[in-house]
Amino acid sequence: MSLKGHTLTKTLLYEKAVFPAPEDFDLLLIMGGTMSVYQEKEFPWLRSEKEFVRKVIDEGKPVLGSCFGAQMIAEVLGGKVTRNRFKEIGWHRVKALAGEKLKMKNEGVMNSWLPSGLFPEFTAFMWHGDTFEIPAGAVRIFESEACPNQGFIYGENVLGLQFHPEADRRWIGNLIEDSGHELVEGEYIQSKEEILEYERFLGDSRSIAFSLMDWFEKKSVKIE
């Protein structure tokens, strides 16, 4: 698939696919999944994925992780991934940290690293029961009411997001069909009807996703 002159490829780990060499790509995207990063016995390919992600980060390549992808990055960098107090499913408000919460010495890092269009608060799509610990050396940048750790920056090239900026109508529909059994009564769990009723947020979600990718292209991804 070609987007804005870039080629997008995918690696399906459960098919025993071969990982690409880091020098063969400009940006690594690690997307969501219904498994947990600590389920290595059930999904043995997680071990090789973690080794690959560690290698890519060590080589200084840009990396963006969403939901499970952010949890994968966090664990690879030494942070623990555990069950969150609440399951968070549906459209929820996310706040960018600032001032004392962010620690003033890091505020300039965040404001220069991320697209300004994401601040200071927005609605994002969630579907998770786990949460990650902020790794040593990373900066926590986002929070929600149900999940304090919604995002972090590591160095100048790694971004982990607990929410799904890539969500679109088709993907949400497939997720509901596959995992709709999780839509039970809960403080931060919306019903199918509520999730689909909030389609008005898809435009903002798309803008966030494009803003992030444009930023990676401009700041980190070097295209010859």
Helices and strands, with pairings:
Blueprint: E1 2-3, E2 6-7, E3 28-30, H1 45-58, E4 63-66, H2 68-76, E5 81-96, H3 99-102, H4 104-113, E6 121-132, E7 138-143, E8 151-154, E9 158-161, H5 169-179, H6 192-197, H7 202-220
Parallel strand pairs: 3-4, 4-9
Antiparallel strand pairs: 1-2, 5-6, 5-7, 7-8, 8-9
State the order of secondary-structure elements, H for helix, E for strand. EEEHEHEHHEEEEHHH
Query: Which regions contain 5 or more consecutive residues with pLDDT less than 50?
Result: none
**Biggest sheet descriptor:** 7 strands, mixed
Q: How do the strands of the widest beta sheet line up side by side?
A: 3-4-9-8-7-5-6
Q: How many β-strand runs?
A: 9
**What is the share of helical residues?**
25-40%
| Form type | globular
Task: Give the helix/strand class.
Answer: alpha+beta
Q: Total helix count?
A: 7
What is the average of the pLDDT values? 86
- Beta content comes to 15-25%
Please provide a written account of the structure.
The protein is of the alpha+beta class. 33% of the residues lie in helices and 24% in strands. It is built from seven helices and nine strands; from the N terminus they run βββαβαβααββββααα. It has a seven-stranded mixed beta sheet, with helices on both faces. The protein has a two-stranded antiparallel sheet with strand order 1-2. Helix 1 crosses helix 2 (68-76). The two termini are 19 Å apart. The mean pLDDT is 86.
What features would you highlight for this structure?
single chain, 224 residues, alpha+beta, 7-stranded mixed sheet, 33% helix
